[in-house]
Write a structure and sequence with these properties.
The chain is an alpha+beta fold. The chain has six helices and five strands.
Length: about 180
C-alpha cells in the first residue's frame, strides 16, 4: 500500500473520530439489499433528524471506534456496513432508521453507541420504542404537577369553607 493511500485512510479515520466525538448517537447498520434510491431516501429522512449516514469500510470504522475508546465491534463489522451519526436527539434518528428499515424490509441494525455507551442490537431496538425526549420530559413535569394541584386544592379547602360560612352569615343578616 502506498504512503498516499495510508495518509488518506488516516485522514478518514481522524474525520470519523471527530464525528463520533460530536455525535450523541452512532449506529452500525447493515444496508444490504437497499437500492440507491432507497438509500438516498433514508439519507434525506435522517438529515431532517440532525443526523447523517455514510458507507465506510469496516476496518476504518473499527480503527475509529478503537481510537475513540468506545470499544470493539468485531462481531458487528461483517459485510456491508453503514454508519449513522446523530447529533441532536439520541432517539429520533434511531426511530427514523428502525421505521424505514421495517417499511422496506431490508437491512438492519447491528449495534449502537448512545452517549458513548455501546449497546447491542436488541437494546437499540428497545431504545427505539421509547417516546421522544420531549414526551418523556412532559410526563415527568406532569408527574410533578399533579400532586401540586392536589396540594393547592387541599390548602384552599378551609379558605373556601370560611368564605361559604361568611357568605351564609351575610345572607342571614341581610335577610333579617
Amino acid at each position: 500500500m502506498s504512503g498516499r493511500a495510508i495518509a488518506e485512510k488516516s485522514k478518514v479515520v481522524e474525520g470519523l473520530k471527530e464525528k463520533i466525538a460530536k455525535a450523541k448517537l452512532v449506529i452500525v447498520s447493515d444496508y444490504r439489499g437497499l437500492t440507491v434510491k432507497e438509500f438516498t431516501s433514508l439519507r434525506r429522512k435522517l438529515r431532517s433528524e440532525d443526523s447523517e449516514i455514510h458507507v465506510i469500510k469496516n476496518t476504518l470504522i473499527e480503527r475509529a471506534f478503537a481510537e475513540s475508546g468506545i470499544g470493539q465491534l468485531n462481531d458487528q463489522l461483517k459485510g456491508s456496513t453503514a454508519l449513522l451519526l446523530g447529533y441532536g436527539d439520541a432517539v429520533s434518528p434511531l426511530k427514523a432508521l428502525v421505521k424505514f428499515l421495517k417499511e422496506i424490509e431490508k437491512g438492519g441494525i447491528r449495534a449502537g453507541v448512545v452517549e458513548k455507551n455501546l449497546y447491542e442490537q436488541k437494546e437499540m431496538i428497545e431504545l427505539s420504542k421509547l417516546p421522544a425526549k420531549e414526551v418523556l420530559i412532559g410526563k415527568v413535569v406532569g408527574g410533578f404537577k399533579a400532586p401540586l394541584f392536589g396540594l393547592v386544592n387541599v390548602l384552599q379547602g378551609p379558605i373556601r369553607k370560611l368564605v361559604y360560612a361568611l357568605d351564609a352569615i351575610k345572607t342571614k343578616k341581610g335577610g333579617e
